[in-house]
Design a protein that fits this description.
alpha+beta, 4-stranded mixed beta sheet, 8 helices, globular
């Protein structure tokens, strides 16, 4: 299985935006008109920076296939999940939280999620988590509860984004087992998907791939991109 996993920290554009405005505009100009419109739709610098980062990571990943984001035509499935109209063999998903953006590209359907770690709201657990997940959380100590809360959350979100159903599928309709190996089941039936998890200072992240087993994901390693890498890609491709 072929996979590309990327992370990018966009905090440079979330602080004193005025100092970076020229470079921000130049980077936006590399992307499709639709992505530029999405970036512009955000009122504050934080949202604009995250949307820019998502577009740049997709552009970077597609460039490894000889494609540019600005040239790729986006289409949408029955559940409004985006896909590349002219490249059905390339699947992708994007996520962001705090200052961190995540992108995954694969040759099968994929979903990903990244979350900035904070104090978990246990009311969410009892409202949205499956019984087995609640039991696993309550059995752990406070530090373990925080870690496992975000493990469950990112794993569940990545599965929902894989399916394209989002919140239209109740979170407690399926149960994640932290393993090892990590797996998901619904009404006693194993769901045909594979998971991988990553830790980044202050963040948890996960992705889910359709039909993948633990063995096929064993070598999945993320690439934490620097702005120098982003700019080198621009210079070499323009």
């Amino acid at each position: 299985m072929r996979m590309q996993i990327y992370f990018l920290d966009v905090s440079r554009f979330q602080q004193d935006f005025a100092l970076e405005e020229e470079e921000f505009s130049r980077l936006c100009g590399r992307l499709s008109e639709k992505r530029q419109q999405k970036i512009e739709s955000f009122r504050y610098a934080k949202g604009k920076a995250l949307s820019l980062g998502a577009g740049l990571l997709l552009d970077y990943g597609l460039s490894r296939h000889g494609i540019r984001e600005r040239d790729a035509v986006m289409a949408y499935g029955p559940d409004e999940k985006p896909y590349l109209r002219d490249y059905p063999e390339i699947h992708f998903n994007l996520s962001h939280s705090g200052t961190l953006v995540m992108a995954v590209l694969a040759d099968q359907e994929v979903g990903c999620d990244v979350e900035r770690i904070a104090v978990p709201d246990m009311r969410i657990v009892h409202r949205f988590f499956a019984a087995g997940e609640i039991a696993a959380l309550e059995a752990g100590k406070e530090k373990e509860q925080t870690e496992n809360f975000y493990r469950f959350w990112t794993l569940k979100e990545s599965f929902l984004k894989l399916t394209g159903k989002g919140m239209r599928m109740p979170l407690n309709e399926f149960c994640i087992h932290l393993g090892p190996p990590v797996y998901a089941e619904c009404n006693g039936k194993l769901l045909k998907c594979g998971f991988a998890e990553f830790a980044y200072p202050g963040y948890r992240a996960a992705f889910c791939v359709e039909g993948a087993g633990e063995e096929s994901l064993a070598g999945a390693k993320p690439e934490y991109l620097s702005w120098n890498q982003i700019m080198r890609m621009e210079n070499s491709k323009e």
